[in-house]
Amino acid sequence: MPNLNIRDAKNRDAVVRGEPTTQTTRIHQVGPNGSPTSLRRVLKGTLEHDLKALLAAHGDSLDEVAQALIDGDPDVDMERFGSYLTHPARVWVNDAD
To answer: Which end of the chain, N or C, is less packed with Cβ atoms under 10 Å?
Structure first.
């Protein structure tokens, strides 16, 4: 911020500097019992288990994919499903890539 030089009628001068102030509002989220909450990113699924991959693995028919889902759980990776993501990165992907 720039300094302002001011002087009154009696030739008294001063240097005034303007400083911005920040007001931060803290919002605290609590659970039903009043305990603090935390936000986490959880892995819901992987590319190997999305609809396109299931169609490629179990046939081009949704009925075949539905039967595969009934027989077993090919859409759920028990090792990675529900794991916490510590440092997720946003990636934009289109169908052409």
So the answer is: C
